[in-house]
Each structure stands twice: as structure tokens, then as C-alpha cells.
Amino acid sequence: MSTIKGWAANAAGQPLALTTFDVGALGAEEVEVAVDYCGICHSDLSMIHNEWGNARYPFIPGHEVIGRVTALGAQAKGLSIGQRVGIGWTAESCMHCCQCLSGDQNLCASSVATIGGHHGGFADKVRAHWAWAVPLPEDIDLTSAGPLLCGGITVLKPFLAYDIKPTARVGVVGIGGLGHMAVKFAAGWGCEVTAFTSTAAKADEARSFGAHHVVASRDAAAIKAIAGSLDLLLVTVNVPMDWSALLNTLAPKGRMHVVGAVLEPIPVPAFSLIGRQREVSGSPTGSPVDIARMLDFAARHDIRPQVEMFPMSKVNEALAHLEAGKARYRIVLEAGS
Ligand SMILES: [Zn+2]
Ligand SMILES: [Zn+2]
């Protein structure tokens, strides 16, 4: 019998408790990965508190895993024992549906989230389908790479999906866990970057991440002053905003793309879309190939999430730090500590 020991959520809102689970034999297409680092994402908190209504307890949170392959199922392909890999939001997809065969495995209707009916990375080990254990580039910084696996691919995916050009003007709404990575990726991509933040104290930091301009996101006059200028507006916040004003920052054919889990519906006036042929869209993470490309790009441009380190044993303190809005800007747990 094979076991996984990790920090488990047993019911909504309870502190995580160190628990050992019997996970049975490794599946033929699975790999087992020893966890070295695991980032904490806001989605871990949302699942621990069952904010989306789909948590299945008990489960071990954590879906930004950096680790080493320690066991390979009989049918696992392309990986070797000891290889450094990353595992993000998705642990499995069916690999035979239209989406999977088209290379959009992240859109597979029967995919399994790493923390949805599956044990995640706040643990000694984690399992995934071989395709979702993505090899890491040699020169990537292992301590800070975890948050790239979920947050990083989430903010880079629209650049890949919509073929955003380096000549584009890109706005990023919210300079937090997702947004600070979005600014770094957009700047690395070559774009002119405008950061929108409600926290004046983050303006200099946003510039240090690569933003060319900073706009106060609650300052209607400042937002109006850049009306019609942005080709892509990436929304990373999870709170309501002045959506009409933000839509009006878009240039003709501009796109507002939502990756923050705003629970309240976003009103979209038809005329703000029609007159200038604007679009509104959203997307979840990316395929294994997208993730591999993102990791290569991050390594080449030395794009590192700004992280605070906590020992894995202090996971509850780390979650409280995130919940209090104090994380600057992502938290990474170090295993074996
Ligand atoms: Zn996440
Ligand atoms: Zn599928």
C-alpha cells in the first residue's frame, strides 16, 4: 500500500491537519513526484473554504508543485526517474476527447484538478498523469518557480491564445499574486504595460516589475484619460470594478480578458463592444504545451514570481498571511522543513 502524507482540509474553513492517506497503487499512466516546493494560490483558499461549492473533503490543497519524479506508471511516457517537473492546476485529462486531441487539454470536460477529488502539493508526494507533469527548464529558479505553474500560465495564456503582438499596449488590473506576474510577462513579451492598482504604495513596485505607466484603479479621471488606448486589458482582481470605465480604455478591436475569479456578474454594455468591435473573454490556465512554453519563456527572460518562503509545517500561518492580503506577492512552501 502506498501512502501520501500532507496537510489536509477536512471541512470548510478548518485549519489544515497533517494527515496520511492510503492512495493505492500508482496508475499505469500516472507518475509520482516528490514535492520540493509548492506555491499557495488564492484558489487553494477558495477550495479550503468551499467558496465555489465544488470542494470534496478531505483533500490536500496545493497546485503549484515543483518536484522530482520518483515513480513511473507502466504506461508513463517521456519522463525519467529523478527528472525535475512542475504540476499545476490540472492533474489529469482524458486524452481522448476533442479538446484533448486538439491540444486544449486544459478545456477537457473530464479533467481532474490537482486539488479536486485528488490530493495536491502541500504533501510529501503528489501524483499526476504523465502529460501534466511538465519538465522544467534546466536554468529555472526552483524556489520561485511554483507560482508559474498556475498563476504564471493563467496570465500568459491570453498572449498565446490571441497572438498578442509585442507592439500591443497591455493593461493589467490588480497588482497582486496574478497581476504582478502579468506585468512581468507582458513587459518580457515586449508590450507597453499599464498597471492599474488601488494601492498607491504598489506603484513603484509595479514599475520595478516592468510597468511603463501606473493608473489608480479607483480614479475615474485617470482611467478616462487613457480611454481608447489599450489592445488587451487583463483583469486579475476578484472584486467588482467600474467595468464600463475599464472597457472604455480599450482601443478599437481591443479585448478585456478576465482571469480573476470575480464572483459578481460583470455588466457589459452592448454599445461599449459594438462601436469599436471590442471583445470580452476569459480563460483557465493552459495546456501542458502552453505550460512548457511559458516555463521556457520565463527561464529565458528570468521572469520570477516575487515570493515569500514558509516552511511546509507553517502552512496554516502561510494561508492566514495570504488571507489577510499581506502576501507580497506569492507564497511558496518549502518541503522537508
Ligand atoms: Zn491556482
Ligand atoms: Zn479530454
Summarize the structure in words.
The protein has 337 residues and is an alpha/beta fold. The protein folds into two domains: 3-150 and 285-334, Medium-chain alcohol dehydrogenases, catalytic domain (Quinone Oxidoreductase, Chain A, domain 1, Alpha-Beta Complex), CATH 3.90.180.10; 152-282, 3-Layer(aba) Sandwich (Rossmann fold), CATH 3.40.50.720. It is built from eleven helices and 17 strands. The strands form four sheets. Strands 3, 4, 5, 8, 9, 16 and 17 form a seven-stranded mixed β-sheet that branches. It has a six-stranded parallel β-sheet with strand order 12-11-10-13-14-15. Helix 4 crosses helix 5 and helix 4 (151-161) crosses helix 10. The longest helix is centred in the middle third of the chain and has 13 residues, at 177-189. The two termini are 25 Å apart. The model has no long low-confidence stretch (mean pLDDT 96). One zinc ion binds next to loops.
Task: Break the fold down into its secondary structure elements and pairings.
Layout: E1 3-8, E2 17-22, E3 30-40, H1 42-48, E4 65-72, E5 84-87, E6 90-92, H2 98-101, E7 112-113, E8 125-129, E9 134-135, H3 142-145, H4 151-161, E10 169-173, H5 177-189, E11 192-197, H6 203-209, E12 213-216, H7 220-224, E13 230-235, H8 243-247, E14 250-258, H9 270-274, E15 279-282, H10 288-300, E16 307-311, H11 315-323, E17 330-334
Parallel strand pairs: 10-11, 10-13, 11-12, 13-14, 14-15, 16-17
Antiparallel strand pairs: 1-2, 3-4, 3-8, 3-17, 4-5, 5-9, 6-7
The protein binds zinc ion (2 copies).
